[in-house]
Amino acid sequence: MNYDVVVIGSGPGGYVAAIRCAQLGLKTAIIEKYNVLGGTCLNVGCIPSKALLDSSEHYHNAAHAFSEHGIELGNLKVNLTQMIKRKGEVVKSNNDGISYLMKKNKIDTYFGLGSFVNKNTIKVTDAEGKEQQIETKKTIIATGSKPTTLPFLPLDKKRIITSTEALSLTEIPKNMIIIGGGVIGLELGSVYARLGAKVQVIEYMDSIIPTMDRALGKELMRILKKSLKFEFFMSHKVTGATNEGEVVKVTAENPKGETVTFEGDYVLVSVGRKPYTEGLGLENAGVQMGERGMIAVNDHLETNVPGIFAIGDVVRGAMLAHKAEEEGVLVAEHIVGQKPHINYNLIPGVVYTWPEVAGVGFTEEQLKEQGRAYKSGSFPFKASGRAKASGDTDGFVKVLADKETDEILGVHMIGPRIADLIAEAVTAMEFRASAEDVARMSHAHPTYAEAMKEACLAATENRALHI
Ligand SMILES: NC(=O)c1ccc[n+]([C@@H]2O[C@H](COP(=O)([O-])OP(=O)(O)OC[C@H]3O[C@@H](n4cnc5c(N)ncnc54)[C@H](O)[C@@H]3O)[C@@H](O)[C@H]2O)c1
């Protein structure tokens, strides 16, 4: 078969790229190594983790918050098998949705490992080892990433696990040790802490979610300690682990240089992810690698080989599904001669703990480092009528704006449903709104979104109305 474009990898970057290519009239095929579409995000990432986060949140609320609302429950218990089964059904219905989208857009799907024979020929090897070759004018590599491991801490995938195994446990851990206080560790730690596990987080840096605005990590840590009894061990360097059957012992060096030991029945290693390019045969097409295992690309996401592009987790930038999607669309439009653009500074980051955490634009630390004059306005959810009604009064919205022009430079939030609220900040910043612009917009009352307006009022002239 001959194609205009072949996409390798069917995660959010790859399948969206394929749809956009097809919409633009290009004859398109997509190759997927596993027998389902959707990649890490849909099968063992964003979607199943959200399903478990939602289920565990219901349980936690039933156990700890319902009585305050006047709802009495007896005999409350967790059916983990059902919870995991439901998660599987959520994933499956999304798998089916992507298959439908491929058919609707007349995109040919090949299941098997895609690898370059040369610049324009791609071999697909299926699970039985059967091979076929397809010809293409352009290729988009969207093969994603896989979990980083620690050399002294080999995974056994039973007791020492990554997020993939943590999404399908058959029992609730008694004591879960989490190595890495980033997004995965805190989201999956929340799932099991809500279901009753004692969770201990060992983090190398002095802050959790260290790449986000520091105020967010500080507030999240306070809340997770209070609401889910998380224990944090900051500035600790993990040095080893021994698997003793039912128990794993993890050793780490504390900030004083002393060795401390942790004992748990499960250890989740969540220290980041690395680009996945194994078996792609990049050398056969002459594609050059960049730093840290990434594929090197230019501003149009084209590799050193004209006509071969790479997007998402295999290239520089945040390892986020929505960033990969934007890149997929950009490449498709670039291929047909359009002039698309991505503002990488406005890719929001979200953590689906409860409360949720989100940020976009520059952090306060980055503005200080740039020496940029800025002003800051915050509004706490404890002053929000909507938050009081639902009982979600933890957290705040912080708006950073240019001191002279009042243009919004960064918005950082922690609070109820702010994973959705961050979209308002992205929209405002994409249109280069000032804090006063947003402060003068009517926000429905009572909503959590009013906190955004109030934080903008606070940033404008320190004139928040409800605090
Ligand atoms: N909600 C979301 O958008 C979401 C959810 C899950 C994953 N992801 C993405 O997946 C990727 C992987 O997530 P992650 O949580 O594994 O990575 P991460 O980069 O978010 O966090 C890793 C954490 O581990 C720490 N760390 C690194 N080495 C360590 C060591 N040896 N000992 C102790 N701590 C160590 C880091 O300082 C960091 O805090 C990220 O890029 C993330 O953005 C996103």
From TrEMBL:
Residues at the catalytic site: H445 (proton acceptor)
So what does this thing catalyse? Answer: N(6)-[(R)-dihydrolipoyl]-L-lysyl-[protein] + NAD(+) = N(6)-[(R)-lipoyl]-L-lysyl-[protein] + NADH + H(+)
- Free-text comment on the cofactor: Binds 1 FAD per subunit.
Q: Where does NAD(+) bind?
A: G180, G181, G182, V183, I184, G185, L186, E187, E203, G272
Which keywords belong to this entry? Disulfide bond, FAD, Flavoprotein, NAD, Nucleotide-binding, Oxidoreductase, Redox-active center
Instruction: Return the InterPro entries for the record.
Output: Class-I_Pyr_Nuc-Dis_Oxidored (IPR050151), FAD/NAD-bd_sf (IPR036188), FAD/NAD-binding_dom (IPR023753), FAD/NAD-linked_Rdtase_dimer_sf (IPR016156), Lipoamide_DH (IPR006258), Pyr_nuc-diS_OxRdtase (IPR001100), Pyr_nucl-diS_OxRdtase_dimer (IPR004099), Pyr_OxRdtase_I_AS (IPR012999)
Q: Which SUPFAM superfamilies match?
A: FAD/NAD(P)-binding domain (SSF51905), FAD/NAD-linked reductases, dimerisation (C-terminal) domain (SSF55424)
What's one GO MF term for it? flavin adenine dinucleotide binding
Cystines in this chain: C41-C46
Q: Which domain of life is it from?
A: Bacteria
Misc remark: The active site is a redox-active disulfide bond.
Name the record gives this protein: Dihydrolipoyl dehydrogenase
Q: Which organism is it from?
A: Pontibacter oryzae
Q: What is the lineage of its organism?
A: Bacteria, Pseudomonadati, Bacteroidota, Cytophagia, Cytophagales
**Encoding gene, per UniProt annotation:** lpdA
